Amino acid sequence: MGQSSWMYGAAWQQARADYLSRHPFCAICGKPLRGADAIVDHIRPHHGDWALFWDESNWQALCKRCHAETGAWRHYRRV
């Protein structure tokens, strides 16, 4: 989780669970999300920006595979 790991505490876990209950499918491939395969991704990396971290319009529900592919694309593009 890196330098912003302090952001991912109990409040994040609850917000994540709530978000995934409202968005049960991967935003990219449409796969049903279950358990550890369900990830709430920050579309625009927050880099520790508290407001951007909590901005739900900057979130998307992804499966692990799509998250890994999106992360690789971001790394390549240096977003």
Question: Any overview of this molecule?
Answer:
There is one protein chain. This protein is α+β, with helices and mostly antiparallel strands and about 80 residues long. It has 3 helices and 2 strands. The protein has a two-stranded antiparallel ribbon with strand order 1-2. The chain is globular, with a radius of gyration of 12 Å. The protein starts with 9 loop residues before the first helix and ends with a helix.
Features of the shown structure:
about 80 residues, alpha+beta, two-stranded antiparallel sheet, 3 helices, globular
Brief synopsis:
The protein is α+β, with helices and mostly antiparallel strands. 41% of the residues lie in helices and 13% in strands.
SSE arrangement:
Blueprint: H1 10-22, E1 38-42, H2 50-54, E2 59-63, H3 64-77
Low-confidence stretches: none
Main sheet characteristics:
2 strands, antiparallel
Strand content: 5-15%
| Spatial order of the strands forming the largest sheet | 1-2
Overall mean pLDDT: 87
Shape: globular
Counted by DSSP, the helix tally is: 3
Task: State the helicity in percent bands.
Answer: 40-55%
